[in-house]
Amino acid sequence: MEIAKKRKNYSRHRFEFLDAIFLLILLVFAIIIVVPFISVIATSFATQKEALESTLLLIPKRPTIDNYYRLFQDPRIVIGYKTTSLILLIGVPLNMFLTTSLAYGLSRTNYPGAKFMFYAILFTMLFNGGIVPLYLLMLELGIANTLWSVILAYGVNTFYFIIMRTYMLSLPEALVESAKIDGAGEWRILFRIILPISKPILATVLLFYSVDRWNEWFNAMIFLRRKDLIPLQLVLRNIVMDSSIMDSLSIAGPRIPRFTEGIQSATIMVVMVPVMCFFPFLQKYFVKGIMIGAVKA
């Protein structure tokens, strides 16, 4: 009995020691991730002199909002917010409607060709036509160099569709059968029965699509040539890559030194803050939805 008790105590202490090691490793990774983020925030509020003197700035001694003030003197920021907001407000509902309707339709597997259609859509995860045929299609439709080319270029994400379809397959079939007995049609079943009990997966996919649309820049770079339609992420890309940004600001004169690091950091924060504010409201659905949607394929 004493030997067994000693072994149990040894195993318990060993387990706690391993927990401490794993906790230490996770803490190191957390520091590696968090410290650069804190440095970006601090640099965005720091003066030029303090940023140049500090190798790793974590707490500015004399905080200032001068970088943000100078940043918003650039008209591209306002244009970027406007364009990205339009892409978000129009594109995300379109993505959600197409994804939910497609996922519900292919979750009903009692009709011929359902598996073929599913694998045909799955095939697009591995192969696609490429950017040139897509650009030619936009030209043919006459929507190139318009906001609709960016919005319609991204309809359904195959991975998000698979997650939502998997979740809908896990719902009891009796719900749909009883609704059909009562005379409900497919659209009524979808909107009155399926979607109200699918809030976790809807919130998860909504978050995915919102982040995708907020980070939209590649399609805009390909399809748009108008400077009044440049999205926010493309503005960020241009500002970060443009070493002479201060020349384009109306407040900057030839004698005012450039502070590219501070403005770049302020730009990063301006782009990140809306997503950071949006995520906590969906976090409680996010983990549940992604776990349930990945239970079975």
Describe this structure in words.
With 297 residues, this protein is mainly alpha-helical. The chain folds into two domains: 2-53; 73-292, MetI-like fold, CATH 1.10.3720.10. Helix content is 71%, strand content 0%. The protein contains 14 helices and no strands. It has helices spanning 2-44, 48-53, 66-71, 75-107, 114-123, 131-141, 147-152, 158-169, 173-181, 186-194, 199-214, 218-223, 232-241, 260-292. Helix 1 crosses helix 14 (260-292), helix 4 (75-107) packs across helix 13 (232-241) and helix 13 (232-241) crosses helix 14 (260-292). The longest helix is centred in the N-terminal third of the chain and has 43 residues, at 2-44.
**Architecture per CATH nomenclature, i.e. the level-2 architecture of the largest domain:** Orthogonal Bundle
Rg, Å, rounded: 26 Å
Structural category:
mainly alpha
Mean pLDDT: 78
Outline the biggest β-sheet. Answer: none
**Helix and strand run:** HHHHHHHHHHHHHH
Number of helices: 14
